[in-house]
Design brief:
The protein has 135 residues and is of the alpha+beta class. It is built from five helices and four strands; from the N terminus they run αααβαββαβ. A hairpin with a 1-residue loop joins strand 2 and strand 3.
């Protein structure tokens, strides 16, 4: 299976569909916020992966799962003393959730939690901020 896309979000959606693993929080958030660009799929997709069964937390009602995920979620945080305002994170954020005002500022209502900003920051100025359960 070889997949490629200029959008990592589209790639995640298509791989999740093909593996039968739809419903990932990142994908649900992106869909809810209408962040998925329109796209077409090309190729032959006879191959399908088999994933392991569900875990206990998949059995929770959606409202309980929502609360639990907010307590467990990891989000990006900016270390102002390390941020130079170079804009690498802003230019590469798939959700467009980052703006630069002296330093990077994250709009958490748009953030999908992909942590691309952390991976790409050349100054290591973006770090994971863990929810209450993971602290």
């Amino acid at each position: 299976m070889v997949d490629g896309s200029p959008s990592v979000l589209v790639l995640d959606v298509e791989v999740a569909k093909r593996t039968g693993a739809g419903g990932f929080p990142l994908i649900r958030i992106a869909e809810r916020k209408r962040l998925l660009p329109s796209y077409t799929v090309e190729g032959d997709f006879r191959f399908r992966l088999k994933l392991p069964g569900k875990r206990w937390y998949h059995l929770l009602p959606s409202w309980a799962g929502h609360i639990l995920s907010r307590l467990y979620r990891v989000k990006p945080g900016v270390l102002p003393e390390k941020c130079t305002g170079c804009g690498v994170c802003m230019r590469n954020c798939p959700a467009g959730a980052i703006e630069i005002k002296d330093t990077a500022r994250i709009n958490y209502s748009r953030c999908i939690g992909c942590m691309s900003c952390q991976e790409l920051c050349p100054f290591r100025a973006i770090v994971p901020v863990y929810g209450l359960i993971r602290r």
